Inverse folding.
């Protein structure tokens, strides 16, 4: 029997949303999927990268614009905060229930976008970190764990399928979010002032920055290529910095309001089953091999078992291997295959969309498959197949051409099915190993592995890319005629570091004046990272191989007898 609401928010609490007998359990998954679709748009972050890295220059990055590495870290902070908030919020979830937690998540995720919007408008990066990264990240974590334990309790007969349904929405968030974000950016963007063709305007270079002298004084400018200007319907030439808009601030504000409305509506659809409920005609039974327990481990005991830390490594390294690529997906495919006519801005945007599609499909497919082949065998598939596929990416990058692009596309899409499948399968894996008593809280604490991966993945891919880029630029500059270099950039080669820091010198612009036959090094910028990711999957394989059933001494009957659940 439900209790009377305690306090102004008592109607949100778990004890007041117990479903009556005869309640249709299939009403719960749509609410879970709706919340996860909203917060899953974090996977579309790379669509924001081009806009945020040229917020002032608009058509091309200006000296004062944010660098790609600083923008990518916003995504990392959100993922780190997700894991930490899930770890702390998991136990709270067990106390107050999914509706309460889902409502708080709606406020934080939507509000984070609004604060981020102000940060972009004022060009204050710390506000974007605070809003989207910190507050939004907390909303991500709470929204992520809110349905998991509830669905496992509603679907004890199909744990993998249940968690796959819930977390499928998170993987599919970018499927809706990516085209929506791109549409809003296009809707709100405005082109900057065009000052003339590069050869028709007298450019001055000071401390790596480019300026044009006008009647009103010196105006900082960027020099845009035909491809860069075409995105705004303009032509190659010189554009005034700070006179247009990428539309990012307005896009953030619109999304914040929309996500809040959808998530709050979905949170009010959550219901929990009464104590001891089970599907009609279903009786639990251990799976072959003893990897599914009928006992339980208390949340405060789980982290004292080796199984928890082995699964932590399994999740961390599986996520690290994919999350860095997701954060720079749009940039990566442009850099590796940008010389192909087929790889347009629209194609790159579709690539991000397809990552979301395969991420989402993989969550449901692999989690459901794990109900039949077992969770441990499912992860073995991830690590063996994934290692091989990561090692093929540098081969496709070096080969070039449309066949290599197709191979790259197929390989990465399979990788992303397993990346998503890892997230969807881990809650059921935890329920098998630790029981269902505190599976939501244990799952939340295990998501600190996601936080760690949120740092390791983007750091590895951006750090190694920057090192490769700097080395490539230095090599190209060494073969370019010094006089031609000075004429092109308005400064000598001795000022290369300043010119690179100001985004005046890039690989693409150096290739314009490089000697004939010089190989463009852009496609090789990610090779070392791909081999490193494959190595992480090998380590994860052996960690998964060592997972065994939890010893009886860790069961709740031994450690917390007062918490033994009613049958």
């Amino acid at each position: 029997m439900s209790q009377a609401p305690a306090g102004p928010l008592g109607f949100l609490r778990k004890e007041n949303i117990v479903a009556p007998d005869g309640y249709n359990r299939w009403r719960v998954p749509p609410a879970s999927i709706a919340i996860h679709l909203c917060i899953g748009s974090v996977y579309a972050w790379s669509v924001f990268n081009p806009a945020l890295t040229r917020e002032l220059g608009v058509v091309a990055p200006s000296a004062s614009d944010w660098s790609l590495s600083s923008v990518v870290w916003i995504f990392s902070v959100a993922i780190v905060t997700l894991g930490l908030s899930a770890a702390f919020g998991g136990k709270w979830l067990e106390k107050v229930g999914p509706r309460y937690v889902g409502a708080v998540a709606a406020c934080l995720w939507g509000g984070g976008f609004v604060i981020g919007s102000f940060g972009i408008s004022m060009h204050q990066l710390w506000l974007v970190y605070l809003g989207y990264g910190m507050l939004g990240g907390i909303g991500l974590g709470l929204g992520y764990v809110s349905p998991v334990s509830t669905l496992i309790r509603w679907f004890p007969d199909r744990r993998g399928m249940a968690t796959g349904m819930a977390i499928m929405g998170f993987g599919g968030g970018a499927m809706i979010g990516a085209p929506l974000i791109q549409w809003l950016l296009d809707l709100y963007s405005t082109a900057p002032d065009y000052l003339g063709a590069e050869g028709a305007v007298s450019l001055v270079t000071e401390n790596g920055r480019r300026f044009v002298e006008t009647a009103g004084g010196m105006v900082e400018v960027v020099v845009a290529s035909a491809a860069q200007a075409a995105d705004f319907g303009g032509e190659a030439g010189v554009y005034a910095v700070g006179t247009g808009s990428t539309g990012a601030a307005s896009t953030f504000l619109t999304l914040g309001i929309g996500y809040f409305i959808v998530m709050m509506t979905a949170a009010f659809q959550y219901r929990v089953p009464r104590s001891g409920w089970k599907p009609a005609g279903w009786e639990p039974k251990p799976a072959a091999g003893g990897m599914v327990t009928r006992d339980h481990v208390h949340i405060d005991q789980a982290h004292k078992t080796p199984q928890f830390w082995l699964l932590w490594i399994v999740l961390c390294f599986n996520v690290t291997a994919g999350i860095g690529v997701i954060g720079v997906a749009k940039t990566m495919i442009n850099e590796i295959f940008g010389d192909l006519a087929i790889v347009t801005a629209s194609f790159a945007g579709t690539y991000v969309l397809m990552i979301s599609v395969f991420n989402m499909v993989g969550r449901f497919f692999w989690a459901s498959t794990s109900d039949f082949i077992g969770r441990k065998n499912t992860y073995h598939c991830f690590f063996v197949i994934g290692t091989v596929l990561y090692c093929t990416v540098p081969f496709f990058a070096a080969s070039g051409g449309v066949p290599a692009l197709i191979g790259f596309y197929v390989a990465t899409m399979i990788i992303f099915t397993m990346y998503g499948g890892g997230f969807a399968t881990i809650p059921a894996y935890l329920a098998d190993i630790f029981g269902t008593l505190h599976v939501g809280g244990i799952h939340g604490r295990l998501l600190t592995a996601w936080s760690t991966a949120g740092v390791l993945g983007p750091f590895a891919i951006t750090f190694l890319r920057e090192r490769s880029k700097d080395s490539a630029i230095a090599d190209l500059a060494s073969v370019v005629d010094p006089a031609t270099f000075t004429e092109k950039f308005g400064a000598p080669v001795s000022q290369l570091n300043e010119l690179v820091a100001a985004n005046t010198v890039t690989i693409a612009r150096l290739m314009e004046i490089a000697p004939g036959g010089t190989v463009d090094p852009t496609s090789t910028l990610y090779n070392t990272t791909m081999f490193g990711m494959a190595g992480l999957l090998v380590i994860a394989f052996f960690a998964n191989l060592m997972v065994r059933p939890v010893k009886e001494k860790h069961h709740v009957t031994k450690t917390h007898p007062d918490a033994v659940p009613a049958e």
